[in-house]
Design goal:
10 helices, mainly alpha, Four Helix Bundle (Hemerythrin (Met), subunit A), about 230 residues, 2 domains, globular, about 70% helix, Arc Repressor Mutant, subunit A, homodimer, DNA-binding, disordered N terminus
DNA sequence: GCTACCACACTACCATACAAGTATGGTAGG
DNA sequence: CCTACCATACTTGTATGGTAGTGTGGTAGC
């Protein structure tokens, strides 16, 4: 029979992949940074094989760029990708909140409520990393409650690029209150079934993520794709 | 300087990946089929490494399922994934045709026109594979003309699941004329800037892809995920 | 006849060795 | 001083061997 315990330790490839991805999204590995199979394998204490396979996965997500016989680099942030990620989220999340206003399970409504409470706590503690995670979880719950979890996962691939620019913005700007208030407003709209209001606030909410993108590109030009090319 | 020739032969990994993906999408490798690094490496005349790395990529796209120490299998078609792919396309393509009606480059308008002509030819020849490709290209041109090519690529990952079910449908049903007429109508609406009409037809058009899904699940139950599980 | 066990064939996972292309710094020649 | 060349130290790409977990068929014991 199956060993459905699900308790097996994760593979080396999985841990390496998760570690690298986290560091890239955190900007600990800044855009443009040179990686190397060998170096990463030494640092992480595994052989080149799982590192290499992680590079393959990250390359497919557009987070790294592999240039044969030359090197592997953390991708620069592509403003077009950021804008299109916003575009996708705008249209899909507007559709999803409308669904949510028509029908949303109580369990997930409570999950949203709990999530909002934790967001407040994180703001008090000024824990921006944690707030970032809660923000992601909040939107995920919305999709999950509408039976559209796979859609959220598909967005995820584009979303990582949007998130890198949002992370860049977090370090300077503080717009936490506004973000929380929008989440709270959307929650109430869903609860009351006010689809028009929910959709409108969601659209504004997602615009917040790309505001001042030009400003960021000015401040951190080395992190962005510049002209026609884009390779370091 | 860069060797920007772009004329280098593709790597073994790339060719293996493309080959396997094509066969899976064509249903030549039917859902549920058992694969193996060793066997594929023998068939394709390469070592296990590029095959393995292709499996990693395909697994990330959800086209194969790797069970450690047990085997690798072509994924069964998940109806939920098919429906959500349609959901994504519905909302994103509606938004895109609206953009197209507001502004669309002449070059891409001509590309659509040429594409439609080729579609007619394919229908005359009853070349369904070719028509399928042209259908994909048609929608791609729409996104490209609106500067949303990355969005189309992001859809692609979900779209492969939708396409497998569409491919399954093609073998029995013939709805070519209807499909063409909708493409043609959308084209004219874009040309005339009639956004409401374009959006409406696009929505109907995408519903066509999942019609009779239940019927297909009845006819080919072994290709679909059945109950709570989904593993072969 | 039925059950428990065990050897074996098979899988994917990981480590390692070799191959081939690329960037770079030093050096010889002008 | 400047340029062309070349050895060398990198890089990723590919092949292969060993390891550990898994399914299966046969067999011994009841």
């Amino acid at each position: 029979m199956y060993t459905n315990g699900r308790a097996q330790e994760p593979s080396a490839r999985e841990t390496v992949y998760a570690k690298l991805k986290e560091q890239i999204l955190n900007l600990e590995l800044a855009p443009g940074t040179a990686l190397s199979e060998k170096e990463s394998s030494l640092v992480l204490g595994v052989s080149r094989t799982p590192v290499r396979e992680s590079f393959v996965r990250l390359a497919q997500e557009g987070l790294v760029q592999v240039l044969p016989q030359r090197g592997t680099f953390v991708s620069l942030i592509d403003p077009a990708l950021v804008e299109e990620a916003r575009f996708m989220r705008e249209h899909l999340e507007r559709a999803v909140v409308r669904l949510a206003c028509a029908h949303f399970p109580d369990s997930h409504l409570h999950a949203l409520e709990d999530n909002l409470a934790l967001q407040l706590k994180s703001i008090e503690r000024e824990d921006d990393r944690r707030l970032f995670e809660l923000d992601e979880a909040y939107h995920r719950i919305l999709f999950e409650g509408c039976g559209k979890l796979n859609t959220w996962r598909a967005i995820g691939q584009m979303n990582v690029h949007l998130n890198r620019s949002r992370m860049l913005r977090l370090v300077a700007d503080r717009h936490w209150r506004h973000l929380y208030e929008q989440h709270e407003t959307i929650f109430r709209a869903v609860k009351e079934g006010d689809a028009d209001r929910a959709e409108r606030v969601m659209q504004e909410h997602l615009l917040l993520g790309v505001r001042d993108l030009a400003h960021l590109m000015d401040k951190y030009p080395q992190y962005f794709i510049s002209g026609g090319d884009g390779k370091p």
